[in-house]
């Protein structure tokens, strides 16, 4: 039985998939407005995609912005994510800066989860997992392919590696070029969840073809799904209101 990952009052891995909504503001004012708006929505978790932030390379300004966001979000769990440009994000920073940023933010105690990309040096991934856990912060170990869908075995291999490295929530997002790719992601999710995972996993097939994978996590084994508020952070995210409605109907008939 896969364990539950608790972040504040949210139990990831129990019941219907949890809804995570990204903030993609570039300025502090935009982020404060986004955070205030997200408080009015029916969501479970907020993700700060800090790679969009104009001052992402100034740690003190990131910390100051985090303090404001944390205050506005109150008891809503917060994921801190720097998405690298090579995996679909807005910017690229070097490995040392990436580790320093994520470690410093984990140590603030103001985030509940950090997202660490699997395709970093293994030593850096392990360093961040250890630092996060020392400060009672959970870790998503993530991987993204914005160009294709790898074979089923490779998807499973990456999720298993993320689990072996101590990620509380292994995650993979892939791009379908056809509907068979969507079935590959769903089949890999099912096999990983049923045969290898001892913790919740997060998977999605992106863009319009992949929307079905963002809705059917309870059936195939993905414990969290991303929905859009004012602006999506990746192709295929649907409005959070529609997402909640569909997840509720599917959960009722599960
Ligand atoms: O990794 C993910 C998943 C995602 O790429 C998606 O496809 O919804 C959106 C990102 O903001 C998040 O960090």
From TrEMBL:
Could you say which enzyme class this protein belongs to?
lyase
Q: Which GO terms describe its molecular function?
A: 3-dehydroquinate dehydratase activity
Keywords annotated in UniProt? Amino-acid biosynthesis, Aromatic amino acid biosynthesis, Lyase, Schiff base
Q: Which reaction does it catalyse?
A: 3-dehydroquinate = 3-dehydroshikimate + H2O
Could you tell me which pathway this protein works in? Answer: Metabolic intermediate biosynthesis; chorismate biosynthesis; chorismate from D-erythrose 4-phosphate and phosphoenolpyruvate: step 3/7
Q: Where is the active site?
A: 144, 171
Q: Which PROSITE patterns match?
A: DEHYDROQUINASE_I (PS01028)
Looking up InterPro entries in the UniProt record yields: 3-dehydroquinate_DH_AS, Aldolase_TIM, DHquinase_I, Type-I_3-dehydroquinase
**Where, by residue number, does 3-dehydroquinate bind?**
47-49, 83, 214, 233, 237
Q: What is its EC number?
A: 4.2.1.10
Please give the NCBIfam families that the UniProt record associates with this protein.
Answer: aroD
Q: Which HAMAP family match?
A: AroD (MF_00214)
What family is it from?
A: Belongs to the type-I 3-dehydroquinase family.
Subunit-structure text: Homodimer.
Q: Name the job this protein performs.
A: Involved in the third step of the chorismate pathway, which leads to the biosynthesis of aromatic amino acids. Catalyzes the cis-dehydration of 3-dehydroquinate (DHQ) and introduces the first double bond of the aromatic ring to yield 3-dehydroshikimate.
Name used for this protein in its record: 3-dehydroquinate dehydratase
Query: What is the source species?
Result: Paenibacillus farraposensis
Query: Upper lineage ranks?
Result: Bacteria, Bacillati, Bacillota, Bacilli, Bacillales
């Amino acid at each position: 039985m896969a364990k539950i990952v608790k972040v504040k009052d949210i139990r990831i891995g129990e019941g219907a998939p949890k809804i995570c909504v990204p903030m993609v503001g570039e300025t502090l004012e935009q982020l404060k407005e986004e955070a205030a708006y997200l408080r009015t929505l029916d969501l479970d978790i907020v993700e700060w995609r800090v790679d969009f932030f104009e001052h992402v390379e100034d740690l003190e300004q990131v910390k100051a912005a985090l303090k404001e966001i944390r205050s506005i979000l109150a008891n809503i769990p917060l994921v801190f994510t720097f998405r690298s440009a090579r995996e679909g994000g807005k910017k690229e920073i070097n490995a040392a800066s990436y580790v320093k940023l994520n470690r410093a933010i984990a140590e603030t105690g103001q985030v509940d989860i950090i997202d660490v990309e699997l395709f970093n040096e293994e030593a850096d991934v392990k360093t961040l997992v250890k630092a996060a856990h020392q400060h009672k912060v959970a870790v998503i170990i993530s991987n993204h392919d914005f160009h294709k869908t790898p074979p089923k075995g490779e998807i499973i291999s990456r999720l298993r590696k993320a689990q072996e490295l101590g990620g509380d929530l292994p995650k993979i997002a892939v791009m379908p070029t056809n509907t068979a790719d969507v079935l590959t992601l769903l089949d890999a999710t099912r096999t990983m969840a049923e045969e290898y995972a001892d913790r919740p996993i997060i998977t999605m097939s992106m863009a319009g073809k992949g929307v079905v994978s963002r809705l059917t996590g309870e059936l195939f084994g993905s414990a969290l799904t991303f929905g859009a508020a004012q602006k999506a952070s990746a192709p295929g995210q649907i409005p959070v209101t529609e997402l909640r409605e569909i997840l509720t109907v599917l959960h009722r008939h599960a």
